[in-house]
Each structure stands twice: as structure tokens, then as C-alpha cells.
Amino acid sequence: MELQQLSGHALRVRGLYAEYERRFAKEWSGLNTMEGFVGDVGDLMKIIMAKEGLRRMEDIDAKLAHELADCLYSVLVLAAKYNVDLEKEFVATMETLEKGIQAKLRVRGTPVALRDHVEFDRLVMHFSFTFYIVQSFYTAAHEERKTRII
Asked: Per-residue pLDDT for 135 more than 80?
């Protein structure tokens, strides 16, 4: 599936949750979705700790796949809610990270072969992107909350 298809599927599921919430509970705001995402990231941390041997857990791989999908769902829903073109922003962020890490890898004017640093690059991109997304959505949710208070 392409990102747009994944996003459409996430929004259809979110729409079903919204209908359920209207009927039986209180509909979730962007802030509630962000709080759920933070909880999912916490769960993901526990699973990663188990993968690294720091915790005991059954069915780690299945739980990891599920939690990553939960996190992606939240990111897609939040991106849609706050009108973030995730594909465009992801590409721009990766280009910025790539240029930055390439500059750091230069030794006496000669680029170090990036293929030798694939794992490091992957981790830097993953954590930088995750931090960027969490920070962006937290800021947007905080601004939304301030607007409601004022």
C-alpha cells in the first residue's frame, strides 16, 4: 500500500471510532489522539526493551509489529487532522538529515562511503523523524488546547 492508501484506511477506521464515540462516549480531539500516541510509544519502548533482552515478554515480534502499526495509525490520523502533507514533509526531512549526516561523515574533504554507515543512518533518520513528528503534533495539540482555554 502507498502512504495515501494507508492514510485513507486509517481515516476510515478513525471515522468508525468517531461514530462510536458520538454514540457512546466523548469524541476524541487531536489532543486525545496525541495522548493515545504517546501511550503507544511507551508500549513500543517496552517491546523494544524486550527485543533487546532488558524485559521478558511473550510474542515479542507480533507485539512489535502491532505497536508499530498503532503508532503509524496515530501519525496518519494526526497528520490528516492538522493538515500536514506527511509525504512531502518526510521527503524534506530526510533530505535535510541526509545532507547533515553526509557533512558530518566527510573526512578531509572526502565523503566516507555511506553504505558503511547504513545502520547508523537508519537509526538517525528513524529517531529524528519520530522526534519531529511527536514535537510537531504536541505543539499543534497544545496550541489547540490554548485556543479552547482562551
From this structure: no
How is 50-96 classified by DSSP, letter by letter?
HHTTSS--SSHHHHHHHHHHHHHHHHHHHHHHTT--HHHHHHHHHHH
- Strand, helix or coil at 131? helix
d(CA 133, CA 84): 10
Residues 6+ apart with CB under 8 A from 71: 37, 40, 41, 44
Contacts of 50 (CB under 8 A, 6+ apart): 56, 57, 60, 63
> What are the φ and ψ backbone dihedral angles of 53, each rounded to 5 degrees?
85, 15
Reading the block at residue 132, the C-alpha cell is 519531529
What is this structure's pTM?
A: 0.69
Q: What is the pLDDT of residue 16?
A: 95
Cβ atoms of 94 and 57 closer than 8 Å:
no
